[in-house]
Amino acid sequence: MIYDISRTISPTLKVWPGDEPFSYQPVLKLSEGASVNLMTLTMSAHTGTHADAPFHHEPVNIHPSALDITTYIGPAHVVSIERQHGGIVPEDFAHADLTGVKRLLVHTWVSDLPDDEWSQDFPYPTPAFIEWMAELGIILLGVDMPSVDRFDDPTLQCHHLLYKHNIRNIETMCLRGVPDGVYELIALPLKVDHVCGSPLRAILRTLD
Q1: Average pLDDT over every residue of 164-193
Q2: Contact, 21 vs 15, CB < 8 A?
Q3: What CATH code would you report for 2-205?
């Protein structure tokens, strides 16, 4: 079975406040006698379900084109937590067996929001949570929230800490309807150079 855990990119998709919303402009139209329909797309590098590249928050030239794609393919643990707001801590995962986990996907109430709604009061990782993930050997953190930092944190401390520990992140996943468990994750960033992130089509495939 396959679960599509990507948000649908459309003009009604909510984006980070002040970011460029998705739009499209027809260039050629079959209805006007052209041989094809052709459109120009305009959107942020962080539209919908996306992977951050280190260039987003670090003074390094590591763009989506340079990301190790093996990080974004492989076994992934989906874990639901009850936290509604505030900082995510290791204790939020006391109910889960994360032995051998390499890719952790955190499922919160944010997955239940429709694509055209957005909340600033989402739960968010804490430095203690990231240090704990590093000790476990996790290489990828996927979240259904729009950021791995608190909405109003200008320091982006958790972005920086993830980079320090060589943990990549995916934001704005939609894990609605996905039971907790282990899956194969396939969530490839586009091979785009000179930018700070990439939208992606993320899926989970059951292992049986």
Answers
A1: 98
A2: yes
A3: 3.50.30.50
